[in-house]
Amino acid sequence: MGIILKALNIFTAKFPELRILQAASFIKEYQTVRTKEGKALLATTLAITRKQCSIVTGDWLRGLRSSESYATYAWSTLADAILQPPKVQVVQALLILTLYEWGVREYHKAWMHCGMAIRIMQSLHSSRISPHPLDVSQNSDTDAMAIAVESRTYWACFIMDCTINSGTYNPRMLPMSEMQKLKVPRPLNYTDFAFGLDATSLNYNAGDMSGLAQGFESIALGFDIYAQAMSFVFNNGRCAPGMCAPESCPWVPGSLWYQCRSRLEEWRKSQHERLWYPQHSVVVHMTLGHGESFIYLNMLYYLTTIMLHREYFPFLPIGDMTPRGPVDPPLLEAEAPPGWWDNSARELFGAAEQIAYLLQEASECGIPLMTPFSGFCAFTACFLNLYVFRFPKMNLGRSTKAEQLMNWGLEYLEEFQNAWELAGGWIKTIQNSSLLYKRATEDEGRYRGRSRADFEALHQSIHEYRIVDRSDQHLQQISHADRNTSQREDGNDLSIPAQTQTNGMGATLNASVSVPDPFPNWWSMLQEVEFTDVGNLWNGMREM
Fold first, then answer.
1. Are 450 and 481 in contact (CB under 8 A)?
2. Nearest-CA neighbor of 235 among 167, 315, 314, 163?
3. Where is the Xylanolytic transcriptional activator regulatory domain (predicted)?
4. Which residues in the chain show pLDDT less than 70?
5. What is the rounded CA–CA span in Å between residue 352 and residue 452?
6. b/e string for 14-45 if b means 16 or more Cβ within 10 A?
7. pLDDT for the residue numbered 136
8. What 8-state DSSP symbol labels residue 200?
9. CB count, 10 Å around CB of 378?
10. Which ranges of 365-510 would DSSP assign to H, the alpha helix?
11. What is the DSSP letter of 253?
């Protein structure tokens, strides 16, 4: 039981987007019946908790079986349960399994399991609210806490749907309009969920979301806005038909960009000001037990800010270019108000700084975050800090710590790679972006006249939560766009003179053959992600 309690504590603290396990109910399950669904839920919890061993101390954690063993056992149990009458434990286990599989790059499995969780949850909710349920034996439990657990789990389905389908071309299954139409009750705040209240506490319209304890609901709404921004980007952003028309420019009220940005700011203002970073620090919220949720709320705000503003900035600035809109077709068909691009740059690169500071402060406070979403935030911030380090005038010289934050971001991703395979593609994307931007700043004519269309694979990779290794495409496009390539003998000798190594991302490259060396000196300590076989299926849980 001690291991179960420790795993529950770590899971609840480190994954704010999946705070769905009510402690009393969870513990009771393993003190009494121990159903097969309960065992599957425990297995998924142990699988994802085991991934935290690089940042959580304790011999008990390292003494657990491999994460893959627990995940395999869980799915072998859930495969039968998904076609049985719906149970909330099955939904919870599928959601946790979804997050685990996303982190280990099993994207299709994650997508399918998230869809299963949503369908089972919809069936469960329908059987409760329908005046004429198809199966009267289902969902007869009227206990207020059971209803609260189901409600919170439904919102977790919503969050996971936003998370794994944002930054991909997959459609969402559970939009906010559906949640509102079905009148899914608002999730209880942390305190009420932990202790439990009567059914009157489940009124959908009661209360507000400004308090510190209402973080889960705020996170759910934040992910909805983030998903809207990512949908805008992945539907071709400013390059979509009509998006460069005067009435669709980002500063125009009523434009898609403006509407999303307005929702983001309204969401921010709906929170208590004590939830705003950097006005208030991570350490204060850590002492209150809300540290991770505080970080998530602010990462959501700053990441969405980045996605909105970055869409309009040049992918490859020219020379000493200062903040401005697109330089590649299609161009905006109206002029921005005076100072608009300067303010946009301030918000864009300021958001990247704040994400880096958030994660850095979390590590210093002893509550480091190593979740797939925090990794994506770190990757996005690292890329932008690289960008403004190489092109400082794009933020008018205001990003004075860009190199320092960029290097810290790389260190974070290196450590992140010890927990989640997801980091491998992000690291390579940063590496190849560094190669491009270093060459572009050392020789301004090298890529003159090139646009983001010439680096389409690299541009795609900087947006991807579901990262795919496109290193070969990155390097081929970088080489093809290089105007100096044609000056080399027979077009085959792409080597460059060996130069002196410097520190950090500013390091120069060694000579290479056939294609530019993707591994500069500063990168020599990083290795390819290796997927090694793990042990056989652990069957010990069957005897629990």
1. yes
2. 167
3. 110-193
4. 132-142, 167-169, 197-212, 485-544
5. 21
6. bbbbbbbbbeebbeebbeeeeebbbbbbbbbb
7. 56
8. G
9. 28
10. 372-390, 402-419, 423-442, 456-461, 471-481
11. T
Say how many residues make up the chain: 544
Q: How far apart are the first and last CA of the chain?
A: 11
The residue segments making up the domain with residue 48 are 2-207
Residue 416, both tokens:
């992140």
Instruction: With CA atoms as reference, report the closest residue to 384 among 416, 345, 417.
Output: 345
Residues 140 and 222 in one domain: no
Q: Does residue 147 contact residue 140 with C-beta atoms inside 8 Å?
A: no
Q: What is the pLDDT of residue 142?
A: 66
Both structure tokens of 205? 């319209």
Q: Which of 71, 80, 215 is nearest to 152 (CA)?
A: 215
CB 74 within 8 A of CB 95: no
Do 165 and 245 sit in the same domain of this protein?
Answer: no
Instruction: Please tell me the distance from the alpha carbon of residue 544 to that of residue 538, in angstroms, as a whole number.
Output: 12
Secondary structure class of 192 (helix, strand, coil): helix
Same domain, residue pair 156 and 108: yes
CA of residue 262 relative to chain centroid, distance? 22
The answer to whether residues 261 and 115 belong to one domain is no
Say if residue 87 is in the same domain as residue 138: yes
Check residue 167 and give its pLDDT: 64
In terms of domains, do 147 and 263 share one?
A: no
Which is nearest to 104 in space by CA: 56, 39, 47?
47
CB-based burial, 307-334: b 16+ in 10 Å, e otherwise: bbbbbbbbbbbeeeeebbbbeeeeebee
117 and 234 belong to one structural domain: no
Phi, psi of 92 (to 5 degrees): -60, -45
Query: Which DSSP category does 236 fall into?
Result: T
H/E run at residue 429: helix 423-442
202 in the same domain as 83: yes
Smallest CA-to-CA distance from 89 within 45, 131, 46 is with: 45
Paired tokens of 221:
């709404």
Instruction: Supply 1's token pair.
Output: 């039981």
Give me the amino acid identity at 102.
W
Element (H, E) at 79: helix 67-81
Displacement of CA 514 from its chain's centroid (Å):
36
Distance CA 285, CA 275 (A): 9
What CA–CA distance (Å, rounded) separates 245 from 256?
A: 12
Write out the two tokens for 316.
């490859």
